[in-house]
Write the structure tokens for this entry.
Amino acid sequence: MPDDLDLAVRVALAAGRPLLLRGKPGSGKSSLAPYVARQRNWRYYSFVVTSQTRARDLQWTFDGVRRLADAQISQASSDPGYYVEPGPLWWAFAPMSASRHIQANAWKRANDNSAPVFEHPLQKANEGRSERHSVVLIDEIDKADPDVPNGLLEPLSSHGFTVAESGSRVEIEETSSAERSEPFQRNLVVITTNEERELPQAFLRRCVVAELTPPDSAHELVRIAEEHLRIRLGEVTEEDRALAVELAGELREARASARTEGIREPSTAEYLDAFWACRALKIGVDDRRWKAVRGLTLIKPQRLRD
């Protein structure tokens, strides 16, 4: 991670504010949150925003359809919390509260064969990670209705919220004086935007804002490829490293050509696509098939219509 981005993460934690990450599509914005979680051994949760997303979805969901179905057969629970399930912010801020809520409902549903089986979000990935620290990724916030960022102001500022259906309050769980003195520093919320829609000023004021510049040097690109190899395969061979170096040179040439022609430059993600394809198919840049792979991954025809 570049030094300036590492500083942005530390500033966001120190200030207790979400980190709003700007940058071109494919530059690696969505990779920052899981990277920080791995490096710090913190729990990790993610939520991809769509045009249908509501601010409440990040805090909790209410299964109104199930409640209506139960009511029609006279089996509706008198407890509205029965139909509430914790969202990523609930799991991040108060994992014990979320677990207790799920366990209580599981007991109530013990004889209900139609009740869905619940699994802890990213249970396997979070196994062995800190119960008191978390990283949450809210991906592509600009895809949502403008009301969504405004609806997140209170929970992101106070690190807590009230579940409307049950009236229960969700807040950061504390067990020591040290945690009580610095409660917000234990949770990092990373929000990404592709700048497709202007975000509300009130929302921007409450964020630490950083921009991710796509890596362009061969050294940076090769290091990224090596990190992906270690995570996915557990090792980096000399052949892998040589291929990453070759493709880094091809990416830089493709970017320079794109700038000259006034079209969108290929991203880091597309560099990795080319790398994995060439690695699996045993294709080097001197292979007759490389030109076709280059057109499929780096310089795509649809860019000509941008």
User: Anything to note?
Assistant: The beta strands are 19-22, 42-48, 60-62, 84-86, 130-139, 160-162, 169-171, 187-193, 208-211. The two ends are 30 Å apart (CA to CA). Residues 219 and 245 are 8 Å apart (CA to CA).
